[in-house]
Amino acid sequence: MSVEKRTKSIDLSHHLSELSKARTTSPLKGLQKYFSQPGILSLAGGLPSPAYFPISDVSANVLIPDSFALVPTESSTSFSWLWKLFGSHTSTSEKTQGVTIPKYSANDGDINLAHSLQYGPSVAQQQLQVFLREFTSEVYRPAFEDWSVLIDTGNTDGWSRAVTTLCNPGEGVLCEEWTYPSALASILPLNIQPVPVPMDGVGMKSDALENLLSQWDPVSRQMPRPHVMYIVPVGQNPSGSTMSITRKKQIYDVCVKYDVIIVEDDPYYFLQLGTYIFKEDRSSGATPSGRPSPKESKRFVSTLTPSFLNFDYQGRVIRLDTFSKTIAPGSRLGWFTCNPLFAERLERQGETTTQAPCGFGQSIITKILTHWSYDGYIRWLRGIRTEYQQRRNFFVDCLAEEFHLQPMPADTVADIWQGCIVYQASSKVKTIAEKHATQNLTMLSFVPPVAGMFVWMKLHLDQHPSFSPGDENALEMKLWTKLAENGVLFAPGWMFSAKELTGDTDHADSGHFRVSFSNVEFPDLKKAVTIFGRVIREFFEEDL
Amino acid sequence: MSVEKRTKSIDLSHHLSELSKARTTSPLKGLQKYFSQPGILSLAGGLPSPAYFPISDVSANVLIPDSFALVPTESSTSFSWLWKLFGSHTSTSEKTQGVTIPKYSANDGDINLAHSLQYGPSVAQQQLQVFLREFTSEVYRPAFEDWSVLIDTGNTDGWSRAVTTLCNPGEGVLCEEWTYPSALASILPLNIQPVPVPMDGVGMKSDALENLLSQWDPVSRQMPRPHVMYIVPVGQNPSGSTMSITRKKQIYDVCVKYDVIIVEDDPYYFLQLGTYIFKEDRSSGATPSGRPSPKESKRFVSTLTPSFLNFDYQGRVIRLDTFSKTIAPGSRLGWFTCNPLFAERLERQGETTTQAPCGFGQSIITKILTHWSYDGYIRWLRGIRTEYQQRRNFFVDCLAEEFHLQPMPADTVADIWQGCIVYQASSKVKTIAEKHATQNLTMLSFVPPVAGMFVWMKLHLDQHPSFSPGDENALEMKLWTKLAENGVLFAPGWMFSAKELTGDTDHADSGHFRVSFSNVEFPDLKKAVTIFGRVIREFFEEDL
Questions:
Q1: By C-alpha distance, which of A290, A269, A398, A76 is closest to B52?
Q2: Where is the Aminotransferase class I/classII large domain (chains A, B) (predicted)?
Q3: A1–chain B nearest CA distance, Å
Q4: Burial class (CB in 10 A: 0-12, 13-18, 19+), A87
Q5: In terms of DSSP bridges, do strands B334-338 and B317-322 run parallel, antiparallel, or are they unpaired?
Q6: What's the total number of domains in chain A?
Q7: Phi and psi angles of residue A530, each rounded to the nearest 5 degrees, phi first
Q8: Cβ contact, residue pair A55, B44, below 8 Å
Q9: A462 within domain boundaries
Q10: Tens digit of pLDDT for each residue in A184-228?
């Protein structure tokens, strides 16, 4: 891959959709100089007086950045379920510090409600913009110089704006063969179709992508060759796969070759959990006492797999970041990082839809981030990462207690897990079938995820006693329903199938559950796995 | 007009756009029963644990509902400019009460951050939904029974979602000939054109609407007869006009006849300011001491001009409400009121764009509203209304001090003011021209608005010494620029012209300024009018 700085000579304007090109800039553009005159008396806008905002100040008690340990230990387990059990809802064990946002700030430039709650352009408030630029620069280190950061109301808004900025009706969007259903629900009504690309254990396959694009026939496909990709490279939803840097570079190079814009939806980036190790082999350590520091931040950031931005020498990546997983989903706050041409069009679109994100949310989150500082926020992210690591470990530990787990290299199991160690799960209790058989029955397999919130289970439905090819979907739903009737909900795999939507019904790929370990309390995770173990054993004994 | 309850037999589904019809419902729909099972262990969703939301609680000091007087008096003037002059930004004179939203609430159903900041459906949080339904029912009293209330992120989002739900590319939207530029910026890139309807002093003309629709020729117009109307009936932006109930009913009946859906964008509804009376003729009263009470609320609501919803017996109105003018623009919170068929489609659209509005904003605003209660909020709105009344009065008083104002019935002045008393402004200082003439020169005319934030000035450019027909736009911009160079910004009229956009350049209509009295402090309002007086006098003396 040749590395060179993006220059203005690389023209990406042909990627803009007709809709996006048609968006008008503000009619005031030509008069802008008057609006920025110091001391001007503006009776031009339709702004309410901030005197009538019914709030003198907003305060929050904010957790300290090092609230959570950095090494998974028993003591770092989330005890919120315990508080609930004992009827205490005040979470007295949380260490917090108070922050306040006044309506009028004493110093110019300090964040204040009179400004945060007023109408404004569809960009971030100034302090937040500064923070996001610093953060993006330090963490993602984009490979081109003139990148822009633009706020949005989270990645759902981000993807919706990106696809309407880039795609015309009748076009297709490259995506992983299993993908986030909401991303597809956004494009289908616009008459934009998913174009699924096969995956293996580290995500979208670059050779499959190359084949698909090189052999693209617009006539038989009834659509032009796709020029936009939607991809979730870290802790992929639903498969939990995480793309290696090598694969990312291969994908990027194919995208350069075929002139494809990459929309990198990366909500789980900071939930990079490392490799799962069986409980008995794990060494439990103590959290280093180091306080948040630039050195610690740098060290942590260097352990994270790089974003596509990091080698995007042509500016063809639109990265979507969100505070949903690192602060809270209700923040409805995220940001684009991309070239300035796309950023300007995305901003215009914001002006006629969401305007700026909520001023309450923006001001509170900005206050938290600036109160913590960049290094504090990195420390917070490290703690959160460790918490989810603990959850991932606990959940897989539960599976290891419930099932006999056999780790094996992928090539001996299934193509979909290539590049990973696959855990094959069989019953610890010999089933009726097994009593008559010579080997253990593999009921499911999975790869303990190295990032994100999900375990993606491949159900070995062909091992079901009444299996015939083509039964996969029916059996998947039979097991799902049995499980639900026993009080446990997993997400059925078919929901995430991009191929299903394109009418490409390759049943041999079917039979998955996406299981989230992100939210349920530990005792309930344990209970759910126990129920699942019983139900799936009964399921594989059926009709015997 | 025949009044009858809307029944299911009135089918409005043919109004849905192709895009809206193509939106999918959640793929989980069929499995929903399992998701609502009590005690179910759900590992299906991708929810982060609320233990990791870094906020223990959010508090706010909230103004009391009767912070502002109900009768405009000297003492009820907003003194926020005084605080600023004296360097005090703490607004110590504000009476506030503290409210707190904890992460975990002690009682089920109490608003809490663990819920407010979590992912959820694209509808309001439950307590807010209850409040909005009660509010809509009490204040707007819709004429049909099965109306729905659906939250959005403010009226810009609301209009954007409404128009894409209703209109296909190539269609037109009926609107006032002068209208909100952002509303047009939303539709133009979708290849949806404005179809301007002539106005008079009370807004869109029903006879002009009837003529337009009855004579509609799809061939010469190159578009089907419009089936959607965008209208701002109260304190219209930019004209400041407010529609009488008689006119509203006439418009509604025409819409029934030609099967038009009315999108009622009504942000200024609670800024119904009453008729302007010259300062010397006003009696200043004292605010009645009555505390917020159901009786007072009912009495106030009965003084407000009814919404289109109030006689919408067919469910063909989508009303857009917002907290932007009554709480703060940065709330980015509003709601649709409409029939359930449209509400369901609008909700689906929210799911793939904004999702739910920001949880910080929703929880704080819900807490304020429930803390105040319905009657408290009505009291707050009455105070805000009086504040803007005071501002309107002060601004027109300034004009009366700067100019000689002559109130006259509209039919003696101009068609555009029909139905109102028009104030004709001439110089108090005799201009050079007038010294040679026999009568005062009318430089501008306006109708003191009975609602909203704006005075719409008609510039009598044909009185300019160097005027030739066709010069209107150039002269408007010449005066605007002169004014800006002297430190005062008004909004130029051409920005609001829907006709201009359709290529219908009827210059005789040109020459307006929209002047906002909503935000600038009183001394600056006074200063701006003084500068304006000097500049416009010099302008009309030019070339002599």
A1: A76
A2: 119-411
A3: 36
A4: exposed
A5: antiparallel
A6: 1
A7: -60, -45
A8: no
A9: yes
A10: 999 999 999 999 999 999 999 999 999 999 999 999 999 999 999
Contacts (Cβ under 8 Å, ≥6 apart) of B453: A46, A48, B235, B268, B271, B325, B388, B516, B517, B518
Q: Which of B185, B325, B524 sits opposite A352 (nearest CB)?
A: B185
Chain A residues lying within 8 Å of B368, measured CB to CB? 54-55
Residue A467 covered by a domain? yes
Lowest average pLDDT, out of A129-138, A439-448, A524-533, B501-510, goes to: B501-510
Secondary structure of B42-95 in HEC code, one letter for each residue: ECCCCCCCHHHCCEEEEEEEEECCCCCCCCCCHHHCCCHHHHHHCCCCCCCCCC
CA distances from B267 to A64, B131, B216 (A): 41, 18, 31
Q: Do A188 and B52 touch (CB under 8 A)?
A: no
B62 burial type by CB count under 10 A (0-12 exposed, 13-18 middle, 19+ buried): buried
Contact A491 B45 (CB under 8 A): yes
Which member of A96, A104, A352 has the closest CB to residue B160? A352
In single-letter form, the type of residue at position A110 comes to: D
Q: What is the CATH number of the domain that holds A406?
A: 3.90.1150
Q: Which residue of B has its CA nearest to A87?
A: B106
A182, amino acid identity = S
User: Alpha-carbon distance B465 to A206, whole Å?
Assistant: 73
From chain B, the residues in CB contact with A380 under 8 A are 54
Within-domain flag for B461: yes
A516 with B46: Cβ contact below 8 A: yes
Q: Which two tokens stand for residue B146?
A: 């099965």
Output the average pLDDT for chain A. Answer: 90
pLDDT (tens digit per residue) in B471-489:
888 999 999 999 999 999 9
Q: Which long-range contacts (CB under 8 A, 24 or more apart) does A374-377 make?
A: A374/A131, A374/A134, A374/A135, A374/A138, A374/A297, A375/A292, A375/A293, A375/A294, A375/A296, A375/A297, A376/A65, A376/A292, A377/A65, A377/A135
Nearest Cα to A248, choosing from A302, A194, A206?
A206
Tell me: pLDDT of A7 over 90: no
Q: What is the DSSP letter of A62?
A: E
Measured from the Cβ of residue B542, the count of other Cβ atoms closer than 10 Å reads 13
Q: Count contacts between A and B (CB, < 8 Å).
A: 378
Give the model's pLDDT for residue A1.
42
- Per the CB < 8 A criterion, the answer to whether A392 and A399 are in contact is no
CB A329 within 8 A of CB B118: yes
Contacts of B188 in chain A (CB under 8 A): 22, 24
Q: Is B398 helix (H, G, I), strand (E, B) or coil?
A: helix
Cα B207 to Cα B200, B215, B254: the distances in Å are 11, 12, 9
- Of B170, B167, B135, the closest CA to residue B149 belongs to B135
Closest CA to A269 of A319, A220, A331, A225: A319
Terminus-to-terminus CA distance in chain A, angstroms?
A: 57
Give the range of the structural domain holding residue B404, as residue numbers without chain letter.
Answer: 390-541
Give the confidence band of A2 by pLDDT, cuts at 50, 70, 90: very low
Task: Note whether residue A22 is domain-resident.
Answer: no
Contact A230, A437 (CB under 8 A): no
Strands B148-152 and B228-231: unpaired
| Cβ–Cβ under 8 Å, residues A349 and B354 | no
Q: Is the pLDDT of residue A250 over 90?
A: yes
For tokens 């038989």, name the residue.
A220
Burial degree of A152 (CB within 10 A; 0-12, 13-18, 19+): buried
Question: What are the tens digits of pLDDT across the range B166-182?
Answer: 999 999 999 999 999 99
A498: closest CA of chain B, how far (Å): 13
Residue B276 has pLDDT above 90, yes or no: yes
> Residues B505, B472: contact at Cβ < 8 Å?
no
Distance of alpha carbon A114 from alpha carbon A359, whole angstroms: 10
Q: Contact, A489 vs B41, CB < 8 A?
A: yes
